[in-house]
Design brief:
Length: 612
């Protein structure tokens, strides 16, 4: 079969073998030296590296030595090129040009090398120089066309191939390349003329027909595009690919009736063809024939030859549609199950169904499929992340620690693995381990999470440092968290509460607690904190107002700590009997601290210094 191709070529000598002195070419001169040889190449935005001061080029007067030196440079450059060391080859070819300044082959070799290293400006300059020294060499001309191409000068590339096609009429590739570059230059009509003339020479060839079909579509000549595909169908009526292409042409031009007939023709030849089934399902859906739509669709999804990535892409919109149409969850899960049945060993099939469950809040079902997915393919961090996220939502600290420990080993540069490991250890009261994991998270090199997540890390570090009695580090972590997220009400509350417990920076604590209440005015926990800070500042009446406001909530009246705080406030307002009543109520609700027992026994407020 005739196949068009455009491969990179090396230049043959006169008899098909490399002709040493005619072929030799090389180069490194400095950038200035290159520009002297080829002025146009100096416009490149990518200059060559400067010559090391230790490299010197000596003047060689002896012609024999000069020939030997030139030959040595040539062979070295060719060897470097074969080994893929293009930069060294460029240097060696340019050194050769200092000795043989007018050898066109050296410029040709340099042009090809600069195409390889993606420096189009220099490539074009050296290609032009090669052709200016020897315009008869077809390899130089081909390289010039390639250089025009990488510089997006498609008209010029087409012109070069046009001249080659005239000079070498038996080489059909030149005419094909001319047409291709004309197409790239948006000269579709001219490209079609070239392809028509080529078809006259070589006959009907699939690649040519496809190129013409694309050009006709670009020109909005749909009937002509369809005619090209019809020619292929007439030549090979058993190839369903052609029918599918024809159906797609009709479909994209809203010719539904013709497209439907073509796709049904495909199913007669290939009953499980997924492209035809998906297209027909779309038509049925538009017509409101939902039974047909679903029948075609499920037949396509049951086909294991239907690419799983295409199936996944089809199902994913169901994730977004669940929120507005509950029926989409059922459909999406049915399709996801068909994907699993057709691809039982594909991790992404289970991950797809797990995503559906997770989006719907069916976390236990999602966990089953995510775990199956990682058992089949443990290299996907996103699936591991989903596992950690669900375990954190379910407050399953043991499994969260287990999974996050695996993740930090497999993906040590992933911030979220270390973060979740820190969370799990904190919840399990493994505070030193939590501190280690969270600090590693902050040091990871993949972006350290977004601003809000980093703030959460510092906040949790503040809690962990507080739990281990490292108050200076705790305060510093909270300050960093608030620097990133100044209005994080929870951090404002916790930081201010811990300061009040220590009786330190009470003015700062009062300000932060007040701000947390401005952000969440209905929080009884925040009211309790604010009342406690006011109590520590000896502002007992204000403390009483805020504590009573909190105790209006049934939840607060069941909280032993809040009840004990209220008793402390009442005692300092000299309401001893009422204070004793609330201390006893706090004990009944579960408070069992030594300090509380002494308060009840001695009927007085026990200072923190007395409890120690």
């Amino acid at each position: 079969m005739f196949i068009f191709r455009n491969n990179n070529r090396t230049l043959p000598g006169k008899n098909g073998l490399p002709a040493l002195h005619r072929l030799v070419g090389r180069l490194p001169l400095l950038v200035a030296g290159l520009c002297c040889l080829v002025g146009t190449a100096c416009n490149s935005s990518r200059p060559l590296a400067r010559r090391s001061p230790s490299r010197q080029v000596y003047s060689i007067k002896d012609s024999t030595l000069l020939e030997q030196r030139a030959d040595s440079l040539f062979y070295s450059a060719e060897r470097s090129k074969i080994l893929g060391d293009y930069r060294t080859a460029i240097t060696q070819f340019s050194d050769y040009l200092r000795l043989r300044r007018n050898n066109p082959t050296a410029y040709y070799e340099l042009a090809r090398l600069f195409i390889e290293v993606r420096n189009p400006g220099y490539a074009l300059g050296f290609a032009r120089k090669a052709v200016s020294l020897d315009a008869s060499n077809k390899w130089f001309q081909i390289t010039l066309a390639d250089a025009f191409g990488v510089n997006a000068q498609f008209d010029s590339a087409a012109a070069v191939y046009g001249r080659l096609a005239t000079r070498y009429p038996d080489n059909d590739e030149y005419l094909y390349n001319k047409g291709m570059f004309l197409a790239k230059a948006d000269k579709s009509e001219e490209a079609l003329v070239v392809f028509d003339s080529l078809e006259v020479k070589v006959g009907l060839i699939e690649e040519l027909a496809f190129q013409k079909q694309r050009l006709y579509l670009k020109l909005n000549r749909m009937e002509d595009a369809a005619a090209e595909v019809h020619k292929l169908i007439n030549q090979n009526p058993d190839d369903v690919r052609y029918y599918l292409i024809l159906g797609d042409i009709y479909n994209s031009n809203d010719r539904t009736e013709e497209a439907t007939a073509i796709y049904k023709e495909v199913l007669q030849r290939d009953p499980s063809n997924p492209r035809a089934l998906i297209a027909l399902s779309g038509f049925a859906k538009k017509e409101g024939k939902l039974d047909q739509y679903w029948a075609y669709l499920t037949r396509a999804f049951a086909n294991p030859d239907y690419n799983i990535d295409e199936k996944v892409a089809y199902v994913y919109p169901y994730l977004q549609m669940q929120g507005v149409d509950s029926g989409k969850l059922k459909e999406g899960l049915q399709l996801a199950q068909l994907v699993i049945e057709a691809h039982p060993e594909e991790a992404k099939a289970y991950a797809l169904q797990a995503d559906m469950y997770s989006q719907a809040g069916m976390l236990d079902s999602a966990l089953v499929d995510y775990n199956k997915a990682v058992s089949l393919d443990s290299t996907r961090f996103t699936v591991w992340y989903q596992l950690m996220w669900i375990y954190s939502r379910k407050d399953d600290s043991n499994n969260l620690l287990k999974v996050s420990s695996i993740v930090t080993e497999r993906f040590p540069k992933e911030f979220m693995g270390h973060y979740f490991k820190g969370v799990a250890n904190f919840l399990l009261q493994n505070y030193p381990a939590s501190i280690d994991a969270l600090n590693i998270a902050l040091q990871t090199g993949n972006g350290n999470g977004d601003k809000n997540t980093r703030a959460d890390v510092y906040s949790l570090l503040g809690d962990a440092y507080h739990a281990t009695g490292q108050h200076q580090l705790s305060d510093s972590s909270y300050d960093r968290a608030l620097a990133l997220k100044p209005d994080d009400a929870l951090v404002l509350n916790n930081f201010s509460y811990y300061l009040s417990l220590r009786g330190e920076q009470l003015s700062k604590a009062e300000s932060m607690s007040k701000r947390s209440l401005e952000l969440e005015p209905g929080s009884t926990n925040f009211m309790d904190t604010y009342a406690w800070i006011l109590f520590r500042m000896a502002r007992y009446e204000q403390a009483r107002e805020w504590m009573e406001k909190a105790l209006q909530s049934q939840e607060a009246r069941e909280n032993p700590n809040m009840l004990e705080h209220y008793g402390d406030i009442l005692f300092n307002l000299h309401e001893v009997d009422k204070a004793l009543e609330y201390w006893q109520l706090a004990k009944q609700k579960g408070a069992n601290s030594v300090g509380l027992a002494r308060k009840i026994a001695e009927k007085r407020y026990i200072l923190a210094t007395e409890r120690e």
